[in-house]
Amino acid sequence: MSDEIFFGVDLGTTNSVIAYIDQVGEPTVVPNQDSDGDITASVVYIDDDGSPVVGQAAKDVAPLYPDRVVALVKREMGRDREWAIGGQSFTPESLSALILRRLADNAFAHTGKPVGKAVITVPAYFGMLERGATRNAGRIAGLDVIGIVPEPVAAALHYDVVADAEGKTILVYDLGGGTFDTTVIAIEKGSIEVLCTDGDSQLGGVDWDRRLADVILREFKERVDLGDEDPEDNEHFMREVLAMAEDVKKGLSRAQSRPVAPRLGQTGARFDVTREQFEAATADLLDATIDYTRRTLATLAERHPGRKVDEVLLVGGSTRMPAVAARLEAELELTPRLHDPDLAVAKGAARYALGQAVWAWDGDEDTPGEDRVAARAEAIAASTGIAAATIRKIAEKRVVTVLPKAFGVRLVDTSKPGWMDDVEGSSYIEHLVHANDPLPSGPHHRELGTVVDDQGEIEIQLYEQSGAVEKPELAFNTAIDHDSGLVSGIPKGKAGMPVHIDMTIDEEGLLSLTATEPSSKKELTIRVRINVLDDDQVEAARRRITALTVKG
Fold first, then answer.
1. Under 8 Å between Cβ of 43 and 154
2. Strand bridging mode 144-150 / 271-274
3. Are 216 and 241 contacting, i.e. CB atoms less than 8 angstroms apart?
4. What's the CATH number for 407-520?
5. CA-CA distances (angstroms) from residue 502 to 16, 103, 364, 368, 446?
6. In Å, how far are 22, 171, 384, 403 from 2, measured between CA atoms?
7. Residues 197-218: pLDDT tens digits?
8. What average pLDDT is seen over the chain?
9. How many CB atoms lie within 10 A of CB 261?
10. End-to-end CA distance of the chain
11. What is the pLDDT of residue 53?
12. CB of 453 within 8 A of CB of 394?
């Protein structure tokens, strides 16, 4: 095995996968050392002694120890949330870091090399707060995170290699365990470009599981006499029904019905659940994904007139449900392709990691681009054992992404009667950069003004869109913390004294905002790497997580 290995991680809501580029330049999935498969359940159990257990073993004990098991952590990324377990406190980043640690341990056992440089995938619709939290999870796990890449892009990278998709525009319908997004991607000779994206980070296969659990519970209650006992009050039973629903859902992708035998104490029943029941109970969930798909295609038509989708690619294990492909084919008149839905993202991320290493090389800046790529490819070839020509071929695909959500600044509407008595109610967000703007984005210029006479300073407050669509109301936006946002020294004068604002965002999510007072030329520059945790908190979490032995 070579000295340097590049890894791609699909850090999923319900399951996670890690892959690497082998010495012949092919993506290879690391097998789970705790099972016979390639997938690790994204579930964490904290044992009585404080030791973390990650994977199927943690998932199996969830009905017995619900207060010590955390699942669906990915849905909390980017939020200020903590879990108190056994006298310890865990953030979404630290729990995700434990999952990453287990994946890294599996990779070390398989390759004999520690996981260093890695790319982690995120849903395309994850905002910068969620992406920053994901990067921090990698840092806490001790990884050198060289990139964050949207899951549909990673899947398209893998699909392009195996299906020769060059010159095509692909709609990626990504229905994972806990998130959904739909993304249009143009695959060209030297690039993979995201044209537009949309989705919901709180919609995924687990919601189908819950609906099916409701069906099973309803049928069970109709068949047995429980007296005054309410099975929904029994947490252990409800978790067993949910686990049963997950298995039945998978079975209904292959058969028209599946038998179930739920039991509560001494009372049990056996009956069949049909695909028809399942699809009826989840029709509105599928409708929601179709609505997002339609909105994505409308955005495509608006931003890229004349561009048509050539193929539909299904990503995520939940796309195995027959209703998904059938509905998409009816809507789009294209036959969706189901290609390696569980592993494609991790494999594509590994390819992206190798390409990113080439483009991120900090070699001689005066060397022409092609020569620099060739030189870096030779250097990586020497350390990995992969042929330089193979590395160059992987690196030739530059990835161009878009901003998933809008960003703006908080302003006050002074035309609103009584605004001075209700500044909060009179405030709104002026978005300077918008969802689906290509990255890097900017600079975007806006001229603002003071709101009262002789206002000597203004506070700049940054916000990210949190709603499904861009809206100016505060409730549909999330404040972004930063070190300093105060522009002082504004000359005395009437309300409306100008302040110039310029905002840019780079490919990695570094937001820069410059506020300038034109008469004095006084300037405030805010550079925000958008995160929930600061560097000190990340380092403290890294030391703590590193000291733990993560079991599977």
1. no
2. unpaired
3. yes
4. 2.60.34.10
5. 39, 41, 31, 31, 7
6. 9, 36, 5, 36
7. 999 989 999 999 999 999 999 9
8. 88
9. 10
10. 25
11. 95
12. no
**What are the structural domain ranges in the chain?**
7-163+339-400, 205-283, 407-520
Residue 45 near residue 65 (C-beta atoms within 8 A) = yes
Cis omega (within 30 of 0) for bond into 440: yes
Report how many helices (DSSP H) and strands (DSSP E) the chain contains, helices first: 13, 31
Relative to beta strand 191-200, strand 257-260 is unpaired
Q: Return the axis-axis angle of helices 205-223 and 283-303, rounded to nearest 10°.
A: 160
CB 413 within 8 A of CB 426: yes
Q: Give me the residue label for tokens 């029941």.
A: 277
pLDDT bracket for residue 368 (50, 70, 90): very low
pLDDT tens digits for 2-55?
678 999 999 999 999 999 998 888 999 999 988 778 999 999 999 998 899 999
- For residue 259, what are its two tokens? 């038998």
- Nearest Cα residue to 273 out of 321, 222, 213: 213
CB 70 within 8 A of CB 85: yes
For the chain, how big is the Rg over CA atoms in Å? 25
Closest CA to 350 of 19, 5, 14: 19
Encoded amino acid at 171, one letter:
L
Angle between helices 92-111 and 128-140 (to 10 degrees): 50
Asked if the model's pLDDT at residue 364 lies above 60, the reply is no
Could you say which DSSP state residue 421 is in? G
H or E element in which residue 187 lies: strand 180-187
Q: In degrees rounded to 5, what are phi and psi of residue 244?
A: -60, -40
Amino acid at 67: D
Q: How far apart are CA 161 and CA 157, in angstroms?
A: 7
Specify the DSSP class assigned to residue 485.
-
Strand bridging mode 498-505 / 441-449: antiparallel
Report whether 530 contacts 35 (CB < 8 A).
Answer: no
CA 249/CA 319 separation, integer angstroms: 12
Tokens linked to 103: 């994946």
Report the predicted TM-score, pTM, of the whole model to 2 decimal places.
0.89
Q: Are 346 and 18 in contact (CB under 8 A)?
A: yes
Any idea of the CA torsion for 63, 65, 66, 72, to the nearest 10 degrees? Answer: -80
Angle between helices 344-359 and 388-395 (to 10 degrees): 100
Distance separating alpha carbons of residues 502 and 496, to the nearest angstrom = 18
Joined tokens for residue 233: 């009050």
CATH of 7-163+339-400, one of 3.40.50.720, 3.20.20.140, 3.30.420.40, 3.30.365.10: 3.30.420.40
Q: Following DSSP, what letter does each residue of 65-119 receive, concatenated?
A: -GGGEE--GGGGTTS---EEETTEEE-HHHHHHHHHHHHHHHHHHHHSS---EEE
Check whether the bond before 443 is cis (ω within 30° of 0).
Answer: yes
Query: Domain 205-283 classified CATH 3.40.47.10?
Result: no
Q: DSSP strand E in 245-336: where? A: 257-260, 263-264, 267-268, 271-274, 311-315
pLDDT over 90 at 395, yes or no: no
